[in-house]
Amino acid sequence: MFARRPAAVLAFLAASCLCALPAWAQEVIARAASPGDVIKVEVQKDGMGKLAYTISRKGKEIISASRLGFNLANARKLDGGFSLRKQAVSEHDSTWEQPWGERQFVRNRYRELRVDLEQKSQAGRQLAVVFRIYDDGVGFRYEFPAQKQLPVAEIIDELTEFTVARPATAWWIPAAELPGLEEEIREAPLKEIGIANTPLTVRLDDGTHIAFHEAALVDYASMWLRKVDGQKLRAMLAPSPSGPAVVREGAFTTPWRTLQIADNAAGLYMSDLVLNLNEPNRLGDVSWVKPSKFVGVWWQMHLQSGTWNAGPNHAATTANTKKYIDFAAKHGMRGVLVEGWNKGWESDWGHGGADFSFTEPYPDFDLTGLASYAKSKGVRLIGHHETGANIVAYEKQMDAAYKLYAKLGVDSIKSGYVHEAGSALFPGRDGKPRYGHYDSQEGVRHFLKAVTEAAKYKLSIDTHEPVKDTGLRRTYPNWLTREGARGVEYNAWGNPPNSVDHEAKLVFTRMLSGPMDYTPGVLSLVGADGKTFNSTQAKQLANFVVIYSPIQMAADLPENYEKYPAAFKFIKDVPTDWFDTRVINGEVGRFATIARKDRNGDGWYVGAVTDGEGRTLPLALDFLDKGKRYTAEIYRDGDSADYRSARRFDLVTETKTVTAGDTLQLRLAPGGGQAIRLLPQP
Ligand code: NOJ
After folding, report:
1. What is the pLDDT at residue 17?
2. Of these residues, 182, 339, 489, 633, which one is catalytic?
3. Mutual orientation of helices 367-376 and 391-408 as an angle, nearest 10°?
4. What are phi and psi of 168, to 5 degrees?
5. Rg of the Cα atoms in the chain
6. Is the bond preceding 151 in cis, omega lying within 30 degrees of 0?
7. 492-508 pLDDT, tens per residue?
């Protein structure tokens, strides 16, 4: 069998089949398989010297011949006329430790296929394509060497294609629409989608799941996926207002184009491929990055009972913030976020953000006094920088603003980039302000700059309306979390609010890219103007486990937590940093059950969520230590619970003694969920 041959034999096979071909014919010029022989990649060239690749899994083709290459603005296209210079296959197997995350230790095991190419007709211009083939997916990227034939690459189009070989259903959101990836996640036949953001999750008719995404998006435009024909998707680079989508000088690599591939939805979420394709930690000791929980002067603005701007209903007053600090201290939450503390909210900030000051508090907010009051109570203020996506104005103040927070002992900042699609304002390539897409090359540069500059002050960042996550938290662990999908705020004012299947979709789509500041735990289940949530109370608890973030907001008002002490106990107990994560079961948009082990204790925590359908999901407890007895603290939907009526508040809390040999039957109400804490008995 091909798949069992050693790397040297594969290299020989690949090199031995170079021959002149008619334009339409394909020859395989390189191939390799994943370490466990699960996935096989072949690179082909046709008679015109155009490149394509295919991917098969367990012997079945899942990505049929898909093109590779570029159109350039300043030179003949990098597409066709290629000949193989050399190719090489190498093996890699290592395990690395995350400073925080879904699991402490991550195995990085792949076979790399490197294909070096040249265009003889273009004075020997060179390009390499490097594939990393894992048992759970494939990543590949292009490498542009420094060369006099192309000192600067002005990329207008990346021609990379992904042709899905079997009929598929897609879960997708359109690109270039609302900022921050906040469109509703749609389900449709893959052949009917438009221009999609990534991660784009598809399920093939044989049950195989693929998530298309990218890893290590640095100094490059975000990749959107445009359906061009049937089930063929083509990379579309977020356009730049300054000309070509990407301009790079000298040697550079593109981000990795990634395909996580699994037998089922659960397998997708278990994959660490995107993180593995990122560079290791560049910040060294990051013990100053603190996974934790926080509360905040926040939900009252979304309920419209408080305002960000100064005035009679100003929420960020000294007195109100003290209330939150006291509440956080009493209940063991590390952080207190305060929005609307700084001058500039009077203007139409979502359409300009020019008036924000990031150093001047409103007169009724005693920033210095509150920062030290918080510290005296063992709590930290969490900073807030809403920029209105006026990146030009923000970058001018960023250093002073970071310095101020660092001086006050504030060690994390939530930043925001509210704007309408295409109207972020950033420094263009010529240094002049330009309006454009937040995920263009210029936008991408800013988001990372905000993080690397923050690291200089030991500040961590939680970005809202962010560029999508591509695993850069591995390289810059102070990029703690981000929004990047519809959060719980849509249940306050969204029209429509988040759908009942939102979380079950998020887990297998958006969450494949990384942590999300989802702002869970609104036990009051009611938004502005009495709008009700498509959720039971138990599901609000489950979301703390299901939707991962190293910093989790307990988003409801303190008085609402005081109303529901039994449910609030789970929010107080649940950790935010994990030793291990297991997806027990799940189907995209239907249900998901996740078990996570505390990184700083022996407890396991389980969250299960369902869509509008009630269901019973078996939970085998075989992940628990054998021979130990555990107390299971169960927070479940009551027998009459239902998200469609006042019975959404029907929550039952109970305890049971269980062992690794037991299987629990989790009964979830329509729109419901279940949360469980499992602690070993002394
Ligand atoms: C949108 C963010 O998602 C939200 O959390 C924040 O409160 C507002 N912008 C204001 O910055």
Report:
1. 37
2. 489
3. 50
4. -140, 155
5. 25
6. no
7. 999 999 999 999 999 99
